Amino acid sequence: MILHRIATAARNQDWFTVFIETCIVVVGLLIGLQINNWNEARSDHAKADAFSERLLGDVMIARSQLSDFLERRERRLQSILKVEEMYFGDSGVMPLSATECEDSADSRIISIPPMRVPSLTEAFAGGLIELIDEPELVRALISVGQSEDRLRSAIEGMRAEAPRLDLEFPDAITRVRGTNPGQGGYRMGAECHFLDQPRDPHFLSRVAHATRINASYVHFLQGHLQRLEELEGVLTGRDAQAPFQEPEAFEAP
Fold first, then answer.
1. 82-122 pLDDT, tens per residue?
2. Which residue(s) pair with 187 in the sheet?
3. Which superkingdom (predicted)?
4. Distance of CA 25 to CAs 1, 2, 9, 11, 141, Å?
5. Is 211 helix (H, G, I), strand (E, B) or coil?
6. 121 near 54, Cβ under 8 Å?
7. Residue 127 falls in which region: left (phi positive, over 0), alpha (psi -120 to 50) or beta
8. Tens-digit pLDDT profile for residues 56-89
9. Measured by CB atoms within 10 angstroms of the end CB, which terminus of the chain is less buried, N or C?
10. Contact 93/81 with Cβ under 8 angstroms?
11. Is residue 143 within 8 Å of residue 194, measured between CB atoms?
C-alpha cells in the first residue's frame, strides 16, 4: 500500500510525499530489524541461562563422583606406600589389612574416572559456548576441557607403565577367590606374603615404580577435581580455590 502511494506521488511529482513515505518505509524497516535483534538476543539469553542451569547440575554430579573416586585412589596409594615401608623394615608400621593387600594387588588398575559432563560436550559440539558472554565462565569451561584431555592422555601412558605385582611376584602377592559380602557372589581378593619371602630388590623396585605411577595418577585426579570445583564456583558465584600446580603430561618414571 505504501509503495503504491510512493509510486503515485512520484508520477504526480509530489516529491515531499515521496520523501515522507520513503522515510516511513526506512524507519519501519529499522524498527523491524531492531525488534528481531531484541528477540534473538532474548532467545540466546534464555538458551544460555538454561544451559548454565544444566551445566551446574552436571558439574556437581561429576565433582561428587570424582571426589569419591579420588578418595578410593588415595587410599590405594597409601596401601602401596605401606608395602614399601614394611619392606624397608619399618617395625612401627601396622600389618596390612585385607583391603590394603587388595589395594596393592590392584595397583596396576589405572582407569578412566567418572568425569563426564554432558552439557560441557554440548557446549563445544553444539556451539552453545558462543552464547556465553561471561569471559570467566568461558575460561573455566575451556580449562575443564583441557584438563580432561590431559588426564585421558596421561592415563594411557600410566596404563602402559603400571606393573602387575600379583603376576610378576605371585609368591609375594597371591590372588585368591573370595566372597563379596556387600553385593553377594564372588570377587578376586588377594593375600600378601612378601615379608615371608627372601628380600628381593626387584620386588621393592617394582613396588616403588607402582607407587610413583599411582602418585602421579592421584595428582592428575586432584588437578581435574579442582578444575571442576573452579567451574562450579564460577557458576555459583563462589570464590575459586588457590591454583593447583598440575603437570602438563605424564612422564614415565
1. 888 887 766 566 788 888 999 999 999 999 999 888 888 87
2. 178
3. Bacteria
4. 11, 8, 15, 18, 45
5. helix
6. no
7. left
8. 999 999 999 999 999 999 999 999 998 888 877 6
9. N
10. no
11. no
Q: What is the pTM of this model?
A: 0.74
- Whether the pLDDT of residue 245 is over 80: the answer is no
All three cell numbers of 195, joined, read 615379608
Whether residue 171 contacts residue 193, with contact meaning beta carbons closer than 8 Å, is answered with yes
DSSP 8-state assignment for residue 131: G
CA atoms of 195 and 89, how far apart (whole Å): 9
Position of cell 584438563?
147
Spatial separation of the C-alpha atoms in residues 71 and 87, rounded to whole Å: 25
Domain ranges of the chain: 60-236
Cα–chain-centroid distance for residue 14?
70
Lookup result for grid cell 556437581: 60
Three cell numbers written together for 158: 600410566
Burial class of residue 170, CB neighbours in 10 A (0-12, 13-18, 19+): exposed
